[in-house]
Amino acid sequence: MAIQTTNTLAQNQWFDIHPNQSKPELINLLVEGFNLPHVPQFLQQVHGNQIIEYSKQAESQLSYQADACFTRSKDVICAVMTADCLPVLLTDNAGSFVAAVHCGWRSLDANILKETLNKINSEHQILAWFGPCIQPMQYEVDESFVKNYLKQHPNSHPAFTAINTGKSFSDLHAMASIQLNALGVKRIEAANQCTFLQPNYYSWRQNNTNKRMASMLWLTGKQAP
């Protein structure tokens, strides 16, 4: 089961999932409304390539500094927070695991997708879903970043527009897809929603907001007979 939040929950506008800012009554509404197995626990995301495996629900919010989490256990939510970065949800066609990955450019540059899949080491076909993120023509980056990224990922030229006056536009979808394709992942679905342009999402680049949305998934337990 997978859920993507926006900035609105029921009739409550500006719903913020971040544990340091969220209202308990709205989190409870989220849990009850979507029948979540527990209150989502979030990582302290640091734009790196650290991965946490959950064997059970985390005991507290922001317990781990990491940008990806996965589990092989039933009814344990894996979740990441975003407000322009790309959330990537992963599983396989055997349903043996689920993973949530926070993919900003730093994490992608640090090979977080490769590190995550290597740690999971699934023998089955991997399936990926891309959540809403900032889209290419809104994501301007410096020439120095493009050159440094391409040194580490030389097959990623299609993810960038031609450099013009020291700037380029970057495509997070393409950056992640190229890396996943190189790892043998071919089945990728994408929301194709722009956090910068669409008002129902939070965008750090739009207004420097500290509010966040969540992308989460879990393996459902067996239903009682």
Automatic annotation (TrEMBL):
Q: Which InterPro entries match?
A: Cu_polyphenol_OxRdtase, Cu_polyphenol_OxRdtase_sf, Cytotoxic_necrot_fac-like_cat
Q: Which reaction does this enzyme catalyse, per its entry?
A: adenosine + H2O + H(+) = inosine + NH4(+); S-methyl-5'-thioadenosine + phosphate = 5-(methylsulfanyl)-alpha-D-ribose 1-phosphate + adenine; inosine + phosphate = alpha-D-ribose 1-phosphate + hypoxanthine; adenosine + phosphate = alpha-D-ribose 1-phosphate + adenine
Which molecular function terms from Gene Ontology are attached?
copper ion binding; hydrolase activity; S-methyl-5-thioadenosine phosphorylase activity
Q: For this UniProt record, give its keywords in alphabetical order, as a comma-separated list.
A: Hydrolase, Metal-binding, Transferase, Zinc
Similarity remark: Belongs to the purine nucleoside phosphorylase YfiH/LACC1 family.
**Protein name per Swiss-Prot or TrEMBL:** FIG00003370: Multicopper polyphenol oxidase
The root-end lineage is:
unclassified sequences, metagenomes, ecological metagenomes
